[in-house]
TrEMBL record:
NCBIfam families: HpnC. It holds the Pfam family SQS_PSY. The keyword Transferase applies. InterPro entries: HSQ_synthase_HpnC, Isoprenoid_synthase_dom_sf, Squ/phyt_synthse, Trans_IPPS_bact-type, Trans_IPPS_HH. It comes from Roseateles subflavus. This is Squalene synthase HpnC. The keyword Transferase applies. Transmembrane segments: none annotated.
């Protein structure tokens, strides 16, 4: 679960004892694949052209693994050697891993979104493949489960955006759809400068309601996952909802400061996770 905050690729149950032990190597391998690609796109001082070249090389190594060939030495030991074992052991779908790389590459060249539909299309590649990979590992199938997983993962991605305004703005990125900014009479440049105000807070309240609705729509999935996996997902769902509560408690001032969770949040998260019932979905 996200112990302190909702981060881009920290929705994996990597270190939790709730992660099914026999699946932990696969989950860790997928995590390191996504985390490393995310760092190639975001971290350090490389130029956009250098980052694009790195991600192309990274994709070539992934494709080599699927073809049963040796990857390049650069990422072999930390990423592709353990990932190759899990690719073949669990028959991981290549399209889902490649979709994540598509999203990282898009982040290098696209920093604005015209509509909610366009932003959701990005989430289909940046977030939803994570949930679908985990469902594949858990052996859970069916259109309903996939739709619920997508709703949870998209909600987590949106919550990450809504808590990260103070980080994305200085980097020139705005994930708030232009149509929403226009409806509230807000300018994108002012948003990037994190200029607070009543209109901005009203918009953030709407965006949080959107994410909450998606999370609640996906929450029944926690009852479809077996054993520890279902309990892990309960905590992830409640963690996301708790971040939204933090933003609400700040009077939606996340343009000014970043909301976070701490150790004192664990008890209420656990209590809410325990209280989730099939007819109730997310209990917050």
């Amino acid at each position: 679960m996200p112990a302190v905050s909702i981060e881009h690729y920290e929705n994996f149950p990597v270190a939790s004892w709730l992660c099914p032990p026999h699946l932990r190597p696969a989950v860790v391998a997928i995590y390191h694949f996504a985390r490393t690609a995310d760092d190639l796109a975001d971290e350090g001082t490389a130029s956009t052209a250098e980052r694009q070249a790195d991600l192309r090389a990274y994709r070539a190594d992934l494709q080599a693994c699927f073809a049963g060939q040796a990857p390049s030495p650069r990422w072999a030991r930390p990423v592709f050697e353990p990932l190759a074992v899990q690719l073949h052991r669990h028959a991981l779908p290549a399209a889902l891993l490649e979709a994540l790389l598509d999203a990282f590459e898009q982040d290098l060249v696209k920093t604005r979104y015209r509509s909610r539909e366009e932003l959701l299309h990005y989430c289909e590649r940046s977030a939803n493949p994570v949930g679908r990979l985990l469902l594949h590992l858990y052996g859970v199938q069916g259109a309903t489960a996939l739709a619920q997983s997508d709703a949870i993962c998209t909600a987590l991605q949106l919550i990450n955006f809504w808590q990260d305004f103070t980080r994305d703005g200085p980097n020139g990125r705005c994930y708030v759809p232009q149509s929403d900014l226009d409806r509230h009479g807000l300018e994108v440049q002012a948003w990037l400068r994190c200029e607070d105000g009543p209109a901005a807070r009203a918009l953030i309240a709407e965006l949080c309601a959107w994410a909450r609705q998606l999370m609640r729509a996906g929450a029944p999935l926690v009852h479809a996952l077996p054993g520890r996996a279902g309990w892990e997902l309960r905590l992830v769902v409640q963690g996301g909802l708790r971040i939204l509560e933090r933003i609400e408690a700040m009077d939606h001032a996340s343009l000014v400061r970043r909301p976070q969770l701490g150790a004192l949040d664990f008890a209420p998260l656990l209590w809410r996770a325990l209280r989730m019932r099939p007819t109730q979905g997310a209990a917050a």
